Amino acid sequence: MGEIITFEKHHLQVPDNPIVPFIEGDGIGKDIMAPSQKVIDAAVEKAYGSRKKIVWQEVLAGGKAFSQTGSYLPEETLNTLKKHLVGIKGPLETPVGGGIRSLNVALRQTLDLFVCLRPVRWFKGVPSPIRYPSLVDMHIFRENTEDIYAGIEFMTGDGKAEKLRDFLINEMGATQIRFPESSSFGIKPISKEGSERLIRAAIFYAVERQLPSVTIVHKGNIMKFTEGAFKNWGYNLAETEFSDNVFTWRQYQQIESEKGKEEAQKALEDAKKSGKVIVKDVITDAFLQDSLLHPYNHSVIATMNLNGDYISDQLAAMVGGIGISPGGNINFQSGYALFEATHGTAPDIAGTGKANPSSLILSGVMLLEYLGWREAAEHVFDAMEHTFAKRRVTSDLHRMMESATLLSTTEFADEIIRNIH
Ligand code: NAP
Predict the structure, then answer these.
(1) Residues involved in catalysis
(2) Residue 77 pLDDT more than 90?
(3) 35: Cβ below 6 Å to ligand 1?
């Protein structure tokens, strides 16, 4: 019998047999979900014997939900996810028509999953376009609810764009609209609350895991009151809420201007020696370059929605692509979390045994870590590392690796299970 995970005093209370709802997903979701669950179960058994076990409970979403209930995202699914707090999902096809923009967006909005967390690490043996992929070990905290993604957009010619244009010019004194007659508009809301909760979660994560730094990535040199404010709110929060645990680049600059570079350097070295997390900021374009050239400069990254989108894909490409990158959408204030494969439904290879389940398996590793079952998470991680190092891989990686052995989706999962044992 399964038990319910609860969230009390900011902490998840996890029973030994927690019920974890799962959404199988569309397309290759069917191919990767069951083998991934088998891998996770094997790791839990290896770590805790019969003492702990996840009780999986299927909830419907996507095509399977539509064919059984007439709804792509039944109310019951949302209620079950809310009741059990932590879930995992395969990829979902975005329904064409029907008024639903994206099931993934609907899930994130309904559960207010404000962090999109993407850990990025390289596995030995996995093809990478960079020379030293082993130096990549980053954790992206992408804000999931605000920014240009809020979808407040007006198309030129629809009347509303013209109304907004006239308001901006006549009421707000805007003179910078280059082609007013044919401009469309998009609005970029960035709030203090939204920024603070994201940056708080990122710093807390770094402090808890004793990671060296948090990089706030922004384009505040151009967008001063949105991205620039994100940076300033971040520094204010770091210096007030985490004063015992962090040293900020802003504090460094302050010491430098008052006492000189040598003193500032000494304060920085002292902070590092005492295990403080260094909170710094980098302009987005410079970050995209620096993370490629000097990935060891960055550990936890805190950024807004659009920057986070670009950064997630670039960093994923550096360690082998989205086929093996996991993701989690989390609300650290309520405990709600939904872990997911970051790729789509890949309908062209659905049912062929070619799908790589690594992204979903590694999302399962994130789920185990989130439950506090670190030993089990490490078993999966080590076994995957071993499998990649032996060059036993699915077709997506096989075509990029020399002298590798081609495995189907289930054979690859079984190989990981063998390595767990
Ligand atoms: P995609 O499904 O990620 O597929 C693009 C290509 O990447 C596939 O054709 C396949 O390429 C390869 N691929 C992706 N995942 C793979 C895996 N696990 N193993 C091996 N190869 C893999 O992207 P898409 O075609 O743009 O999107 C298809 C549908 O998925 C859309 O309806 C989209 O809305 C949805 N989607 C959902 C999510 C989500 O649920 N989180 C995310 C993205 C997209 P080759 O076999 O040709 O190499």
Answers:
(1) 149, 219, 285, 309
(2) yes
(3) no
